[in-house]
Amino acid sequence: MRFACLSKPLLLAAGLAGLSALPAAAQEATGPKPPCGGEFGTWLEGVKAEAAAMGHAPETINAFFASVRPDEAVLRADRAQGVFQRDFIDFSRRLISENRIANGRANAEKHDAVFDRIEAEYGVPRGVLLAFWAFETDYGAVQGDFNTANALATLAHDCRRPELFRPQLLAAIELYERGGIEPASTTGAWAGEIGQVQMLPQDIIENGVDGDGDGRVDLKGSAADALISGGKMLSSLGWRPNEPWLQEIVLPQGIDLRLTGLDQKKTVSEWQALGVTGRNGALGAGNLPASVLLPMGQGGPAFLAYPNFDVYFEWNQSLVYVTTAAYFANRLEGAPVYDAGNPAPGLSGEQMVRLQEKLQARGHDVGGADGILGEKTREAVQAEQERLGLPADAWPTPGLLEAL
């Protein structure tokens, strides 16, 4: 659950082949990069030396790396990001089906005692974990067929994000010592996550729980182990019990759109004073801080994002994916389908890249011109909309691109 991807078979079923959602840590890592690139065998000797310096026995290190090989398919999956260029309505409709909702509710009933335990110990609602479980592996059915050790070594050797994956590769050695991984046979997602909720080795070491009491942590074969471990991890990332995460709202006519966006927070009481109401049910407690999120601008769906929504970004930093996961959790908890509204046409991936280049030229930090509408790009868009006298709803349109 610094859940890096959806497995390819699940994506094909969802019409989203090639999705690769990078872990938050991959996008936040800073500082000098560890050694990477060059001849794989030579690089691997450096990893072995580092593992030995950490206290791992030479025979353990050699046994772990005996079958490790680079995997070009991992690199191809890592480079595939185009699906995140879809807008929220398109993305959410592709991932959320009536069948997936029905299976979620059936699994909630089947594992009722497990979810009761998670809610009691960690305060994480079942809808939240069910949504993660669904999107990661279709409730455990499709867990990925990439060799985990090969995937981690490939990405640690690659010079794009070795600062994330080298520590995970070294953590996998410790996991091997604990009996939690077999380098030659353990499989999972392309970015090295294992099990039904797709956790990286370091996260398994820190948060793995023997949920079914059989004396071992089996995130691949035991739904109880996987779900309870996921609940513990969300708790460690800052989940606040008995609080909402995302709620659909209705905005009053004429609200100042400059107040919207995840970088703008007011208390629920302050939003209510401005005329914001829940579309279905009351808003959260009046003292809770919250932001108004308009994933497709003033004409599309509108949500109030509470502090727990921030925890989703510890899982993944794709705004469209995080919003869809949080919304799906609501659906699994009984919320109706959102009001899609009538949003203005957005930009194609190519147009988004051009927009981001223009924003960068104006001094905005958009996190790179990747064609993906993330929160940094939205903030820059909102600033430029305000400067140009346009509705500052952070939704980029062809009109804004032309104006820039």
Automatic annotation (TrEMBL):
Start and end of every Peptidoglycan binding-like domain? Answer: 348-404
Q: Which GO terms describe its molecular function?
A: peptidoglycan lytic transglycosylase activity
The organism is: Limimaricola pyoseonensis
Reply yes or no: does the keyword Signal apply: yes
Q: Which GO terms describe its biological process?
A: peptidoglycan catabolic process
Q: Where is the Transglycosylase SLT domain?
A: 40-329
Record keywords: Signal included? Answer: yes
Q: Which InterPro entries match?
A: Lysozyme-like_dom_sf, MltB-like, MltB_2, Peptidoglycan-bd-like, PGBD-like_sf, PGBDSf, SLT_2
Keyword list, A-Z = Signal
Q: What is this protein called?
A: Lytic murein transglycosylase
Q: Please name one Pfam family that this protein belongs to.
A: PG_binding_1
Name the residues that span the membrane.
Answer: none
Give the signal peptide, or none: 1-26
